[in-house]
What does this fold into?
Amino acid sequence: MKNNVLKHSIVFFLVFYLQSCRTDCDQRVYFTTQTPIYNSLSKIRKSIESADPKEIISVDQIVATTNAFFLLERNQGIHVLERVTENSLKKLSFIKAQACLEVSQRFGFLIVCQGPDIVTLDITNLSQIREVSRLENVMNMSYIKSDSFISYYENREVEKVLPDDCVEDEIKYVNVEDLANPLKPHASNSALNNNIYACDNDRLVNVQIDSQSGDLQLIKNINLGSNRFRDASNINNGKYLVIGHADNVLIPFSLRNSNGTPELSTFAVQPSNTCGNTYLINDYLFYTGSPENIANRSCNGKNYLFIRNFGSGSAGFHKAHIFTQPFHLSTQKNTSLLSDGAGGIHLLDVSNPASFELTKDVLGSYKQINAQKSLYIGDIALVWGNEGLFLLDLSNPSNIVLLSKIE
It folds into this structure.
């Protein structure tokens, strides 16, 4: 192959850029990218079934009931871990579910965002999960292609022909985002009473669930008029719902009416130029600096946890606290567990965010594991990171104990 051919591999999943310095004009560039693989919607919808437990490759979300933990592996399915005792878990089964994007729990049902659909699963019998209700084609509609949807992604080599306009020794930037959809399908859920609020990349969907049967009813489908949205979180005892935008715009909705239907609020929320998620705790916005699933070219502060006021209707900058790789927050009342990447986990007192200080409000830490995702429930935490899945005892914050590694 000619010496002047550029080979460059990029595995980012949103916007792909190539940079090269050449002494002669090149006509082609080669790289690898995650290419969407489609499957028919009928097959995707029939893919939900219980199977034997399998190796956990990644964890994108963790939810729990009184007797089990459910770990989402995006586009693959849901790992079910039974709580054998209060402080021990075992792998029980795996729920196959192609194109699964989000999972939450309400009234003993699992709510799964699967491709363009929202589904409820009866988990009364953990060994035999049963689908009870499905709303079809309510979100992620732009990813439907000839009655098919993206089932998964695989790495493929791509060739790009460049325009013949390069200059000797010039640094050449090539925008190749047109070779794949710039955003992957996405879903994020929040719940209040029997209302479920789900956002994808460009809309907010309000669904109600029957607490007895698990049946779903579509209440409202709101086009947000843009794209790249990533979060749907409630705040202030159910008064507000805030949609987080990957380009750092936050859109508040009011949930004050009696039936919980979201209405666009009249005040604006100042954005934060970060890559991570947005959390709403005690009338304050918490931003994690490290990216989880959405890349952002303009983000900064990847080792910061940002805190801004929200309750007054204006989110002026408040504080930024340095950690290692703050990825994720899991909160119980006035205590949050921060998954801090290579920095481990930190238990934080968030009862008074306005006066939060590292010296007094970090109640305890455990730095011997890598932590990227967690669920803090009762006195225990289930934590996922580069080194695997761990169960920890947080009953004494000053002496956090590793109970087991889940194999």
About this structure: Residues 1-23, 166-181, 293-297 have pLDDT under 50 and may be disordered. The longest strand covers residues 148-161. Helices lie at 41-45, 358-361.
